[in-house]
Design brief:
By secondary structure, this protein is α+β, with helices and mostly antiparallel strands. It is about 15% helix and about 30% strand.
Amino acid sequence: MPFAQLKDRALISVSGPDAEHFLQNILTTDLDALGDGEAKPGALLTPQGKILFDFLISRAGENAFRIECRADASDDFIRRLLLYKLRAKVEIAKSEQTLVTVAWGKESIASESDSSAVADRRFGDESVTRFYAGTADAGDIAVWQAFRIAHGIAESGTDYALGDAFPHDVLLDEMGGVGFKKGCYVGQEVVSRMQHRGTARRRVMIVEAGLPLPPVGTELTVEGRSVGTLGSSAGTSGLAIARIDRVKAALDIGQPILAADAPVTLTIPAWAKFRFPQAAVSAEEA
């Protein structure tokens, strides 16, 4: 099965009698629905509902959790967690084990002999497994990135900036990264309002072009007006966070969407439940 070692990831351990209660009260992920042997996405938000840190979280034994996040943001993440700790009986520390490997394909099944193996639930029915122990074989990171992009899975850094996106923007609401039935957490009021009012308009979409896509951060435009921003790419395929109402308006009247000077097509990831608005905005409203 194909695999890749992810050298830009770090592991944070949160353990102790109050670990689950502590995390449940600040993170978007509903830990009541987190089973053994699986990793679910989530975020720690600002009070205004924007993503400060994104991660994958999994259980690491009784009263213990493993948080996988960007290595370059891990120290800031730990400091933020410590601010919320107060008198909670938890221990928060960066793990000495930093080896993160991802494998995918039909044979990518968590081995009963490897307690660190967890199923990456962002990919739904696809078999994607993350391993937090084992050998240091590099694998093929480019093939992994192409696989991730093809499935519409956005990650901070290349696809969006921390502090600049809501959970709905990056589809956390559709991949089990937001618990809408659990109690309060930081930023919950804003996220719940977006969910119940159906006001999310910025969404991750898959971008396809006839030529290799331009760099990360390139604006997607229609008649010179921005409709989104290009994220990571693999050759002629990439991800973008786009205004779906503006994309719909362009599609309805046949206006080309450009990344720099290259015509592109934008599609909704196959697994996603969101759809284009029924009534697109006019050019004046956009």
